[in-house]
Amino acid sequence: MTANPHAHEHVLLQMLRIREFENRVQSLFSDGLVKGSTHLANGQEAVAVGMAFALHPGDPVLCTYRGHHHTIARGLPLESAFAEILGRATGCCGGKGGSMHLTDKSLALMGSYAIIGSHIPIAVGAAWASTLTHDGAVTCCIFGDGTTTIGSFHEALNLAAVWRLPIVFICENNLYSEYTAIGDVVPIEHPAADRAGAYGLDRIVIDGNDVEAVKEAVSLARERASAGRGPSLIEALTYRHGGHSRADPGDYRPREEVELWLSRDPISKYADRHEVSTQRLEQLGAEARDEVDRALRKALAAPAPAAEALLSNVWSEESS
Amino acid sequence: MTIINYRKAIAEAIARSMREDPKVVFLGEDVALAGGAFKTTVGLREEFGPTRVFDTPISEQAIIGAAIGAAMRGLRPIAEIMFADFLGTCWDGIANHAAKIRYMTDGAYSVPIVIRAHGGAGLGFGAQHSQLYDGLAMSIPGLKVVVPSTPSDLIGLFQSAVRDPDPVLFIEHKALFDVKEEMPPEGHVVPLGKAQVVREGSDLTLVATGAMVPVALAAAELVQDRRIDCEVIDLRTLTPLDMHSVLRSVEKTSRLILVEEGPGICGWSSEVAARVADEGFWMLDAPIRRVCSPPTPTPFSESLESLWLPKAESVAAEIESYW
Ligand SMILES: Cc1ncc(C[n+]2csc(CCOP(=O)(O)OP(=O)(O)O)c2C)c(N)n1
Ligand SMILES: [Mg+2]
Questions:
Q1: B137-181 pLDDT, tens per residue?
Q2: pTM of the full structure
Q3: Are A51 and A75 in contact (CB under 8 A)?
Q4: Fewer Cβ in 10 A, N or C end of chain B?
Q5: A90 at the B interface (CB within 8 A)?
Q6: Atom of ligand 1 nearest to the CA of A240
Q7: Is A110 within 8 Å of B70 when comparing Cβ atoms?
Q8: Does B173 qualify as catalytic in the annotation?
Q9: Beta-bridge partner residues of B204
Q10: Which ligand 1 atom is the nearest neighbour of the CA of A114?
Q11: Which 3 state secondary structure label does DSSP give B205?
């Protein structure tokens, strides 16, 4: 994204690492090694990588159960992410969180939340703390299009706007809320942007498959927030290549729609724009795959949590 | 000697915690400029200013969420929910987030917040403004629950709640607002998880919380004429639950009656009864009894509400039925 020719490859590699990571998670799930549920972000990598390049170190990020891409883009080590998803002791939450709850305090990754919309007020609280402690951080909160229909979204936006908090809201509009097309459940075309005006915010719709557009929009929003000019709500149009979760084939979506969006794949789009050859792209893909496989091998070798972990950290040390 | 009532003790408790720790901030609906819907927070905005005491929109989810997020970033927020009934709009933040974040992150994050709510029946507020929600709250691992019954306890327990690294639900009983007591000295702290024997006795143990403590004490007076000597225990906190004090009393008295405001189904009295049956069965001379409200919403009409609330006479009748 800068004059440095290798910078392009760095951006590509970040997206490829996420893509390969998600591919591995899918196979681990199919092989029965990952329990419960997983929600993959294949196709949505540009939102996460663009966001991560725009934020500063220490900026809190809160995301959702579909949060592997955001946490990895913000620096969560692949091994720590895999181990958590596999329920191992070395996972970022000691195996007590799981795929839907990747968290890393050392990276200001304040959590991935699985109750729709619930993390938006928490993110507002994180931003509120910054105005009280003057730590200069700008909080970023990511959620989906379907999330704009739950009350906490509106409560949180209103509070953030009226208190002019340093926060950037990113709505990843992937056109579906589980198995329901967003157009079937909201009366407007842009579920986030069309509501921004209700909170005195600008209407911002961007191509979420264009990593540079994401970086630019988030950078502007970040600047605005740190200048004390309050929150921004960015609606990033994107698409998940796969289904909602687990083994969902996503076949409720029209074939032409899927094909259209596959042709807008954020990785090939970026590679084309920067004239990265197919061959080079494949090399980078292989590099990412190697890194992912190494991380996975280590995670698979890690032990399950010890039985004592069952009872620990329900309460603080002082009370247990 | 300064006398303080329970209503004013609330503002006093908050002020003491805010003077002690600059990281304590306070938010809620109408709490700052208006001094609270019940005038329980008068003077705080004046003393601590607009960077520590905040009026919010009517947004319980946002209030609880903001408190959680700020706590995860190092502050010590106190959030007011005007009526405990309104916890119904924000249990998600409390139960799914505040109470679980420490566990789900294996200790990386903690959520040191105090959620204060005005609860309880007896004032004719009807079914949607009279609940305590104490039993429900108590069933959530990771959440502490405090139910003060006197001004001095309120102030002392509140200091512990604010200092506690875990989320605390602090339920203040509306029917106790006019209860008066001597103002406790600066530095007065009551630890969480320590019940109080408020009346010593040898024949029977009565356990109560909140507005049922004076009811239990009155019942003890009523049966005194019949030479029945009751011990009365105020649990003060439901989580942590001081079973040690209850069992020690039952060891002495061999009889136990639990007095709970509300239907008591899966309430604190069910839990205490189960634990005593389990750990103290051989100390008992008679079955454990409970005096609770009937299993209905809180009725509005004064005549019905007074039937609904456990009363000293019904507790006394239950006591006498043992002999
Ligand atoms: C409060 C709540 N209701 C319902 C669900 C079940 N659920 C999980 S994901 C989801 C769809 C969310 O869609 P969207 O916000 O667009 O995010 P996406 O999955 O597309 O990233 C639903 C309904 C939930 N987790 N929480
Ligand atoms: Mg969606």
A1: 999 999 999 999 999 999 999 999 999 999 999 999 999 999 999
A2: 0.96
A3: no
A4: N
A5: no
A6: 20
A7: no
A8: no
A9: B230
A10: 25
A11: strand
Q: Do A313 and B92 touch (CB under 8 A)?
A: no
Helix (H) or strand (E) holding B212: helix B212-224
Interface test with A, best of B59, B113, B242 (most A CBs within 10 A): B59
Half-sphere exposure of residue B257, counting CA atoms within 13 Å on the CB side? 27
- Cβ-proximal residues to B139 (8 Å cutoff; 6+ apart), any chain: B266
Q: Is A173 in CB contact (< 8 Å) with chain B?
A: no
Structure confidence at residue A319 as a pLDDT band (50, 70, 90) = low
Query: In this structure, what token pair is assigned to residue B7?
Result: 């209503």
Summary mean pLDDT of chain A: 96
Please state, in angstroms and rounded to a whole number, the distance separating the CA atoms of residues B14 and B20.
10
Domain borders along chain B are 3-182, 196-320
Work out the average pLDDT over B212-219: 98
- Coil vs helix vs strand at A138: coil
Q: What share of chain B is helix, strand, coil (3-state, %, to 5)?
A: 40, 20, 40
User: Do residue B62 and residue A60 have CB atoms under 8 angstroms apart?
Assistant: no
Provide CATH code, domain B196-320. 3.40.50.920
Interface residue of A101, A115, A134, A152 to substitute, partner B, most B CBs within 10 Å = A152
CB < 8 Å from A in window 48-87 of B = 51, 56-57, 59-75, 77
Looking at domain B3-182, what is its CATH homologous superfamily? Thiamin diphosphate (ThDP)-binding fold, Pyr/PP domains (3.40.50.970)
pLDDT tens for A239-279 read 999 999 988 999 999 999 999 999 999 999 999 999 999 99
| Residue A196 neighbours by CB under 8 Å, 6+ apart | A202, A203, A204, A233
Domain B3-182 matches domain B196-320 at the CATH topology level: yes
Across B147-236, where does the E strand assignment appear?
168-173, 180-182, 196-199, 204-208, 230-234
Question: Which among A27, A42, A82 is positioned nearest to A247, based on CA atoms?
Answer: A27
Distances in whole angstroms, Cα of residue A172 to Cα of each of A192, A238, A267, B231: 9, 7, 17, 61
Helix-strand-coil split of chain A, %, nearest 5: 50, 10, 40
Chain B positions touching A141 (Cβ under 8 A) are none
Q: Domains along chain A?
A: 35-74+98-274 (3.40.50.970)
